[in-house]
Amino acid sequence: xxxxxxxxxxxxxxxxxxxxxxxxxxxxxxxxxxxxxxxxxxxxxxxxxxxxxxxxxxxxxxxxxxxxxxxxxxxxxxxxxxxxxxxxxxxxxxxxxxxxxxxxxxxxxxxxxxxxxxxxxxxxxxxxxxxxxxxxxxxxxxxxxxxxxxxxxxxxxxxxxxxxxxxxxxxxxxxxxxxxxxxxxxxxxxxxxxxxxxxxxxxxxxxxxxxxxxxxxxxxxxxxxxxxxxxxxxxxxxxxxxxxxxxxxxxxxxxxxxxxxxxxxxxxxxxxxxxxxxx
Length: 279
Hints:
2 domains; two-stranded antiparallel ribbon
């Protein structure tokens, strides 16, 4: 179901963007976000509101455009309060105020901003939202980049989303191997690095006594194999042969949600392992 930009967020953006941008700056900002159509007529406030309402009406995924429009302000770095120049300018103060108000509105309307200009709604899967929180907390830019790419391409570029879902798992597994000081396998494809990680984390079904959990762990092996094969045969990561996959957003969502569920399980298990060691 399409999630539109809430009217109070549109109003908030109209209040603040008029202070930050000229007419030309607004035109460039919305063009950067690939907003549809020519710049609307009217003053700056009218232009902002009309363009955002047009995005809601004409675009399949309005939140994708919202993320790119607010990216520079959501990622504004708050100066160190010990610095003598802390929030020295009025513009700095306005940006912080705008950012905080946006974050408050996002909470109210079940939205989450992901670094890189991606906005997720509460309609995103719980594992995706939880994984996003862990990625941010652990400061893993390579994983965050693939997470953002997958979520931003789900609707319009499902092949790219599938490729990113597989890359995300590979990145998680390779970072785990490096950080834990394990031996990187000679062949660094998804299945090989997964084999190293699952062994170190104790995900071998043969070591688990509970039959139900053993079935789930066995199923995880199939998920990894399936996602890797899906990237090979249906994603943008490789050229196509005679058989052309008619990849649709629902297929990409299946791959991405599966990858995020597994990625979350690995990250949570890893965190638990580190905590038990006192790291």
